[in-house]
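Predict the structure of Putative adenylate cyclase.
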Amino acid sequence: MTPLRRLAAILSLDVEGFSGLVEADETAALAAVERAYKRFVRPTVGEFGGDIFKTSGDGVLIEFGSAVNAVQWAARFQRALLADRQAHRPALPVRIGIVIGDVVVTEHDRFGEGVVLATRVQQISPAGGMAISRGVFEYLQGKTDLYFTGIGPCELKGYARHEPIWVWTPKVISASRARRIAVPDPHTQPSVAVMPFDNLSGDPGRNNFIDGMVEEVTASLARVREFLVIARQSAATYRGKSLGAKEIAAELGVRYILQGSVRFSDRRMRVSLHLVDGETALQIWSERIDAEIDDLFQVQDYIAETVSGALHPTIRRAEIERARRRPPDNLVAYDLVMQALPHLWAHRHDENDLAIGLIDEALALEPDNGRAAAIGAWAHAQHIAYNWANDIGEQRTRGRALLDRTPGRIDDDPLALTAVATATMLIEADLERANALLDRALDLDVNHAWAWTRRGFARVYAGQPDDAFACFERSLRLSPLDPFAFNSFIGIGLAHFASDRPEEAARWTRRALAEKPGMTWPHRDLAAFLGACGQEADARLALDRFTASRPGTTIATVRDALRFMNGALLDRYCAGLAAAGLVEREDIGLRAAT
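Done. Here is the predicted structure for Putative adenylate cyclase.
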């Protein structure tokens, strides 16, 4: 008889270090395992469509018809154990591995590749959390609010090829683990809870609509991987309670609280929002959104996008200020990276050097920090693109070395993916790979303004300025108050130049310079644009401002720095610089001076 085979989600569960627990206190260890099984496993798996097909001491194997159900059950189980521990009962360090695989089915058991792989993935899991395979992770997209972190290709016992693994945990991973798991730490990673919005209409019939809005806002923020978002169900337990922001933040273990209220007037609604720092109870952001409610779902989507786009830079600024206030002996790699960001986006040579120094400190503390390496590569790329480098080859070498440290460490981090995409564009001139990285970043967080800005530049460099305008406009709409928004003005200017509108290009570049006093490199753009439209006197002034701190710059060095531009655009750009008076090579300038 041909054995029955099927594709299934297989969950493997065991207790980390169980032999040691038994050796220390056999009775207590066995009692804890039996209690966990009887209270948290056997009575609950059926609710999620799970079928226990094997138990062995401290281990359990369960088949689920859905990977989503398997992950949701695992999260519920681990949170129940965590709550049990907090109730002063002995803790069980349970590991869970989940895969989608082929299994051979018998009446009382399962065999095959899926079962073996699940047990191997389980061994990678952090205690108190779960590890999942690529198949499970890809299947989960858009179907769960759980935050999984990619830890790269991992060696699995009995498998020749390393397999990419993602992990989740409801608590902080202990720093004493021999193998570091890149799970966000709420002590260093920003976190936010969206409270139930107050219904000020007096009509209980509006509650479902308001709850749906809160759910959309929470889901939208959850896609911003730079901070953690508490699940809506947890935040919903505070409905009607009179606790202050400090108390709620402390109980939920978050740093920020988003509160809101909704008023209705006929077919219009007004949503009032404010973000509160949970440590100080100070309001750090507020907004009022007015909208028609004829299309309920469209309104919910609009509000979710608006809030996500606004909170992203607001929380980033708050985290930067928080990092700046930290005493030097308390700094960690995360704080150093946050401190580096404003120096990076200052777009000045000396500031960029400071950013690189802070990144070097972060990597000294945490050599495997993929985000730090990514942002460091971006900083070195700016040295090249803005003609700050005396030795472009050296900067490319240093940037490439940092790029080599990012694979497998930034797969779930849109900011780091955007940084690597930018560095890949500017250092390697590899637009195809850069676009793939940006697509990944936007798949993770469609409201990531920086990723939209860099996608716009990639389109201009590739000779697609019409597509670029839409990217820059999307970025500015998502994050109009972002301190990096001036970069979109520069991009719009370059897109106009690529569309043969140099005067309009110059207007946008001047706007960027007004937004960011102290920058000098955009004067190179301005010189090229003014030179191209025949305004040679103004073009010469702009060129002088650019070269004042860059003696020896020539068209040849500009071509080397900007080789990521398509040939036609680069030729037109350099022709504009030549019209402004920039020499082709340094030896030509020397002959002209003698």
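The longest helix spans residues 296-325.
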